[in-house]
């Protein structure tokens, strides 16, 4: 039986909010700069004020395109747990698939930050004899561990 697990959408939302805050800060800074220059010379302000709407529309389009791109990337990042393997799929234009065997697993654990506990996500860590594999920002990490335990060889 295959089960698909995704990264939490909380991280996606956090990134979109961060981009919005950054673009709003840039717009506020340019507006304050224009206001400051208004005191110095009226000509510069008249030229720049015509571009203010264009800049605002451009930043809105940029934010929309970037948010859409991040959504598509989030949708394309999946973990599939099946008998004996975890398959990590990612990529929008260049898709990649990595298979991780569930043989020789020494231990499986998960960690959650305070935000992770509130929003129900965390990092699942699988320890092998020679290395460790981490699956970051997984929704319901306890559930992923149960799936891994059920699908071990």
Key features of this structure:
single chain, 153 residues, alpha+beta, PH-domain like, 4-stranded antiparallel beta sheet, 3-stranded antiparallel beta sheet, 4 helices, 55% helix, 27% strand, elongated
Describe this structure in words.
- The structure is a single chain.
- The chain is built from four helices and seven strands, in the order βααββββαββα.
- Helices cover 55% and strands 27% of the residues.
- The chain has 153 residues and is α+β, with helices and mostly antiparallel strands.
- The protein has a single domain (1-153), classed as PH-domain like, CATH 2.30.29.
- Strand 6 and strand 7 (132-139) form a beta hairpin.
Please provide a brief summary of the model.
With 153 residues, the chain is an alpha+beta fold. It is built from four helices and seven strands, in the order E-H-H-E-E-E-E-H-E-E-H.
Topology:
Elements: E1 3-6, H1 9-40, H2 42-76, E2 78-82, E3 85-90, E4 96-101, E5 107-111, H3 114-119, E6 121-127, E7 132-139, H4 141-151
Antiparallel strand pairs: 1-2, 2-3, 3-4, 5-6, 6-7
Helix pairs in contact: 1-2
Main sheet properties: 4 strands, antiparallel
How far do the termini sit from each other?
A: 14 Å
Beta-strand content estimate? 25-35%
Report the average pLDDT across residues. 87
Low-confidence stretches: none
The total domain count is: 1
Count of runs of 4 or more consecutive helical residues: 4
> What's the total number of strands?
7
